[in-house]
Amino acid sequence: MKIDRERLEMLKEIMALDFSSIELNLYLDTHPMDQKALAIHNDYAMKLKKLKEEYEKEYAFLTHKNVSKCPWEWIEEPWPWEIDYEMGGR
Amino acid sequence: MWVYEKKLQYPAWVEGNDIRIAKGLFAQYGGPDSELSAGIRYLTQRYTMPLNEVKAVLTDIGTEEMAHWEIIGTLIYKLIDGLDPEELRKAGLDAHYIQHGHDLYPHDAAGVPWTAAYIQAIEDPITNLTEDMGAEQKARTTYEHLINSTTDRGVIETLSFLREREVVHFQRFGESLRMVQEYMDRKKY
After folding, report:
1. B145 to chain A, closest Cα gap in Å
2. Considering the entire predicted model, what is its pTM?
3. Neighbouring C-alpha atoms within 13 Å toward the C-beta of A55
4. Is the CB of residue B146 less than 8 Å from the CB of residue B20?
5. Tens place of pLDDT for every residue, chain A, 90 residues?
6. pLDDT tens digits along B46-61
7. Which domain holds residue B155?
8. How many domains is chain B partitioned into structurally?
9. Residues of the domain holding A37
10. Contacts of B8 in chain A (CB under 8 A)
11. Is B102 helix (H, G, I), strand (E, B) or coil?
12. What is the value of ipTM here, to two decimals?
């Protein structure tokens, strides 16, 4: 399923930032005193929070923990496995 | 607890020119060294793990494996979406179609259903973590076999991302094992 170009770009930016956050989190689990990694993690965490809020305001819920209009917005398509990420195929 | 986020960890995509690889991808959906086995294994081993660092590693990697399970599911879904029974038969998925239609099911590449017998939890943290490191290497090798078996650029790109995650997880489990060994030495002497 194709989605609006600007929305797709923003979603992919969130996915990339979120992945960086996951990777830093795992590293910090075994290196909890690494201040440099911690600073990068905190910087990404702030950027990610802001970008997710913008996306949820502009396009769609990422989690159900949002205030919704009627009908319940969480059920809206597309679901993640349905999206054409436009990487060169479908 | 867990909260679902309506996004994938990686933008999984397929060209769709090699439908036969869908059958092979079931190795990582419901096989012995699948993402499902990995997730259930690590999340099960958390409870008795002695160090906070390693409780975190098992929780976080276990959670990430569920996201990888979803990526494999997405690849299979995209590859078989809309195929008729004849096309599925040519892709070697005739038995799958008869029992499951276009649904996914946690079985391996040969159709053997997933079982908890694929994983262990034996309390000893050194034994558990050593199994986890082996599991990551087995998953890496399976990804390499899959990558070697297809020409679909989307599948190759997506699996290359997942393969790299196995390498990172192996590294984190190795650090965890060292921390547990040091902890146990401190307790003894």
Report:
1. 22
2. 0.98
3. 24
4. no
5. 999 999 999 999 999 999 999 999 999 999 999 999 999 999 999 999 999 999 999 999 999 999 999 999 999 999 999 999 999 999
6. 999 999 999 999 999 9
7. 21-188
8. 1
9. 5-82
10. 15, 80-81
11. coil
12. 0.97
